[in-house]
Write a structure and sequence with these properties.
Blueprint: E1 2-5, H1 40-45, H2 51-68, H3 70-81, H4 88-91, E2 92-95, E3 101-106, E4 111-115, H5 122-142, H6 149-163, H7 167-173, H8 181-200, H9 205-221, H10 236-243
Parallel strand pairs: 2-4
Antiparallel strand pairs: 1-3, 3-4
Helix pairs in contact: 2-3, 2-5, 3-5, 3-10, 5-6, 6-8, 6-9, 7-8, 8-9
Length: 252
Amino acid sequence: MIPDVATPPPESSEKPAKGTKEWGYDLYPERKGEVYKPSWSKVLFKGEGQENMDKIKCERNVWWCVKNSPLVKLMMGALKSSGCPIDIRRHISCEVCDPSVTGGYDPVNNQIVVCQNMARKEGMVQGVLTHEMIHMFDYCTNNLDFKNIDHLACTEIRAANLAHCSFLSAWAQGDASPFNIKQSHQDCVKTKALASVLAVRDVTRDQAIDAVERVFPKCYADLEPIGRRIRRNSADQHKAYTEAPLYGYDVY
């Protein structure tokens, strides 16, 4: 699984325990055939126990994004043009996930997971779908091997670059500076990509950092298929959507 990480892992140079952690599937229990059953304490004190309703709300948010989000429509068109059209009933699944992630891409089943317990609003679902569709696009067009840490680092850099890191999100991560916005954006992308690699691979922090640094110049410069970095509260999303046909991509 390729996660969209909600909370970065703690800094450590020690290897994590082997197991499903190595590929990230422990963060997505339904991927392993488990049925989520909240404890009574979570039902009473955390408001859980409404998983069926959460799933319906999540699916409604997905449908809204498919119909209204310029970025999601652009990504779906680019995937279709590249020979990998999306059937939302087959390729997008709302599920209960570990609280450390908001979504993920499962290359084995070619499915995007939207974490219904974490991504509860349309804006967050849009971010998850765009992020994971970039992984799906890379898998479709570039023959990615997700077991290769350099390939994984590259697609995480691209997803963070195109779908995650604005100045405000960089500021929230502690990577932003009003004096060097370009460097702040690059630091935000590296932080996000590093957290995602560490979440699903049995490697040390130093090994993950080395992988991110090795591929960063090339992968940071690759803006396909969106064509531009999206600034928050700007017209960039609509501009990218409008320009997509100029680069040979269908639009929905």
